């Protein structure tokens, strides 16, 4: 199981983010991850940060498929590939009703079916192949040619059975949120593996995004996670995975404690079939620094 590091970009300059990516590279981290939130555009950010490094991989987890058309996203992703020397992992996902419908005013009807159409159209475009895709709700016709750009690795954020089936059949794997090792081992890993096997594809990646704090005060940090991320427990896809793991809220999925405790929890994820443990540092500034130091040393 390799170690990935999520870099919190909120409120930071490109120089600060670039320095964090460079430190990760110098300490053996395979790839760093960015989120698509309400600030930096994640793909543009990756293109801007890449010159600060030379070998580390970059991933976005994830770009919402609403309202980006596959042709537009493929053109942006391949442009980033050309600018970074082909170091991009492209994660896509459905997002959530309060964002898609509430913020954008776009109906989010049958999202799993829409995401499947989207990935079916996106894959050939990322490979530079001519595409003439007509689905129930999505049409994509054309071909993209960007010199030097290879098809980026494609990952799908999948937590439920239909999304995991799509991820296993059509992508390199999945990235999860709020899924503990018990859920990965008993549900996510066997479900995505079965889909990949039936489609004649290799075993998919399972990238577990987890809030982590190397701390001597786990209760305080757990309360902090509950206050900052507790609303995620009301989002349907997250609520389903939390219920599957018997968790009341996101704070109960965090990995908290001293270095020895955190290392033992990471082993549980590895034993469950996680291929990459994505460390998302949380807590006070001192805890975040301690957590990042642990991740760099553990890698």
What does it look like?
- This protein folds into two domains: 133 residues, Luciferase-like domain (TIM Barrel); 142 residues, TIM Barrel.
- It is 44% helix and 20% strand.
- The protein is built from eleven helices and eleven strands.
- The strands form two sheets. Strands 1-2-3-4-7-8-9-11 form an eight-stranded parallel barrel, surrounded by eight helices. Strands 5-6 form a two-stranded antiparallel ribbon.
- Strand 8, helix 7 and strand 9 form a beta-alpha-beta unit.
Number of strands: 11
Low-pLDDT runs: none
Helix content: 40-55%
CATH architecture of the largest domain: Alpha-Beta Barrel
Structural domain count: 2
Main-sheet strand order equals: 1-2-3-4-7-8-9-11
* CA-CA gap between termini: 9 Å
Largest β-sheet summary: 8 strands, parallel, barrel
State the secondary-structure class. Answer: alpha/beta
Taking all Cα atoms into account, the compactness measure Rg is 18 Å
Quaternary status: single chain
Q: Per DSSP, what share of the residues sits in E-state strands of 2 or more residues? A: 15-25%
What CATH calls the topology of the largest domain is: TIM Barrel
- State the fourth-level CATH superfamily of the largest domain: Luciferase-like domain
Which key terms come to mind for this protein?
single chain, 299 residues, alpha/beta, TIM Barrel, 2 domains, eight-stranded parallel barrel, two-stranded antiparallel ribbon
Question: Could you write a compact summary of the structure shown?
Answer:
With 299 residues, the chain is an alpha/beta fold.
């Amino acid at each position: 199981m390799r170690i990935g590091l999520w870099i919190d970009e909120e409120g930071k300059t490109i120089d600060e983010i670039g320095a964090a990516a460079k430190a990760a590279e110098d300490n053996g981290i395979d790839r760093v991850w960015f989120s698509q939130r309400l600030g930096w555009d994640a793909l543009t950010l990756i293109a801007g940060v890449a010159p600060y490094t030379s070998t580390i991989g970059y991933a976005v987890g994830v770009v919402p498929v609403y309202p980006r058309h596959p042709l537009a996203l493929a053109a942006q992703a391949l442009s980033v590939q050309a600018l970074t020397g082909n170091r991009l992992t492209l994660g896509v996902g459905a997002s959530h009703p309060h964002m898609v419908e509430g913020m954008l005013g776009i109906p989010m009807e049958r999202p799993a079916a829409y995401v499947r159409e989207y990935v079916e159209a996106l894959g050939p475009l990322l490979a530079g192949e001519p595409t003439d895709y007509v689905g129930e709700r999505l049409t994509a016709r054309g071909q993209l040619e960007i010199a030097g750009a290879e098809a980026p690795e494609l990952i799908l954020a999948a937590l439920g059975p239909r999304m995991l089936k799509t991820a296993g059949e059509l992508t390199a794997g999945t990235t999860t949120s709020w899924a503990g090792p018990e859920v990965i081992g008993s549900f996510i890993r066997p479900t995505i593996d079965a889909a990949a096997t039936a489609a004649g594809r290799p075993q998919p990646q399972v990238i577990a995004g987890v809030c982590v704090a190397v701390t001597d005060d786990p209760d305080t940090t757990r309360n902090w996670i509950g206050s900052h991320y507790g609303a995620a427990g009301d989002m349907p896809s997250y609520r389903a995975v939390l219920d599957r793991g018997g968790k009341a809220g996101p704070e109960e999925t965090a990995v908290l404690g001293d270095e020895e405790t955190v290392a033992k929890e990471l082993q549980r994820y590895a034993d469950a079939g996680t291929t990459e443990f994505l460390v998302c540092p949380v807590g006070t500034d001192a805890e975040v620094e301690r957590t990042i130091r642990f991740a760099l040393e553990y890698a």
